[in-house]
Specification:
The protein has 341 residues and is an alpha/beta fold. Helix content is 27%, strand content 19%. A seven-stranded mixed sheet has the order 3-4-5-6-9-10-14, sandwiched between helices. Strands 2-1-12-11 form a four-stranded antiparallel sheet, with helices on one face. Strand 1 and strand 2 form a beta hairpin.
Length: 341
């Protein structure tokens, strides 16, 4: 499924988005509104070159479908088809009657995560901390921390609480499967709990000019030791296709650490750092504004971050209550004695 159309009074669970309530639209010429949206993306969207999208050619395809007599519903359908061409999970459009989201980055892939399987089959001494963080132990000497989101600053406190309790365990499973993102700042702050030095984990460039390949001077981002907890054990980081946006920033910051092995499925592939803007008819949209480059070169936009150890499964189709991704991580984390506190 490439778009999500629901009544606008419903809440759309989109990464890093607050609920948006829209007033009825003022009357506008649909052709004017089409040109406005097209021009906004032409000027600010950051991934035309990476995705080899000919935005000018698409205008010639879609603009003739809009006339002064076009209804709001018809205009929304045109916009949805146009925005689908970008194949971007950070591009959204909210209207008073429907909303648009491109969800194919996750729809075609297995879920690869089922919390009841972990809670029942693996986790001991289960606790819940701030930000929805869950933690416990999944084997002798192996702690487990589920980080469900980076949207709330409380998640940083929740992870600190979990690490304070698990600091004596020499090995740790960090699970960010189904984490749709939130704030890069929260994600990288948590990653700093596991860094023993500064590591360059990404390079960022903002779109800053009229040409589609106009970018600002590259900014090199590093993860550094941070926070009250310094965990220095061996780490398995679990990922799947629904790890997206700021959660991928976390994976980026963790995968460069020598102590970390990433296990699971490839992530969703979205790093646009979008901003929210409004059209003159009152409709609201999100538009990505930067490009993220990997330290080794290239980008994962629209592709995702591949794990070190690839494991994929669908809980709906697999028999029993096991979790092959967690099983694979545990097979690589040999049981050890607890570390003296």
């Amino acid at each position: 499924m490439k778009r999500l159309l629901v009544p606008a009074v419903s809440c759309l669970a989109l990464t890093g988005c607050a609920d948006i309530l829209l007033d009825p639209d003022p009357p506008m010429d649909p052709v004017v509104v089409f040109d406005e949206l097209w021009e906004e993306f032409d000027r600010y969207y950051s991934h035309f070159e990476i995705k080899a999208v000919d935005w000018g050619a698409l205008r010639e395809v879609y603009r003739p479908r809009v006339t002064p007599a076009t209804t709001d519903g018809q205009l929304f359908a045109v916009f949805s088809d146009l925005l689908d061409e970008l194949r971007d999970g950070h591009v959204n459009l909210w209207t008073p009657f429907a909303l648009y989201a491109w969800t194919a980055w996750a729809d075609a892939y297995p879920e690869s995560f089922a919390w009841p399987r972990i809670a029942i089959g693996y986790l001991r001494d289960e606790r819940t901390a701030a930000g929805g963080v869950r933690w416990g132990r999944v084997a002798p000497g192996v702690g487990y921390v589920l980080i469900p989101t980076f949207a709330d600053r409380a998640v940083v406190d929740g992870v600190d609480a979990a690490l304070a309790a698990l600091s004596g365990e020499p090995q740790l499973v960090l699970d960010v499967r189904h984490n749709g993102g939130g704030s890069d700042n929260h994600a990288v702050a948590i990653a700093g709990r596991f860094a023993d030095a500064a590591y360059h984990y990404r390079t960022v460039q903002y779109r800053n000019g009229p040409a589609h390949d106009d970018y600002a001077v590259p900014r090199l981002d590093s993860v550094r030791p941070a926070g009250p907890i310094a965990y220095r054990g061996t780490i398995a980081l679990l990922t799947n296709r629904r790890v997206f946006s700021a959660a991928e920033a976390f994976v980026l910051a963790m995968r460069v650490l020598p102590s970390v092995t990433v296990v699971g499925d490839t992530t969703g592939g979205g790093a646009g750092n979008p901003i929210t803007r409004e059209l003159s008819n009152g409709w609201v949209y999100r538009i990505p504004r930067w490009v993220v480059w990997l330290p080794e070169g290239g980008t994962y936009e629209g592709v995702g971050l591949a794990p070190d150890v690839f494991v994929q499964f669908d809980p709906a189709e697999s028999a029993g209550n096991g979790d092959p991704i967690l099983d694979s991580a545990l097979a690589r984390l040999a049981p050890q004695e607890r570390v003296a506190r």
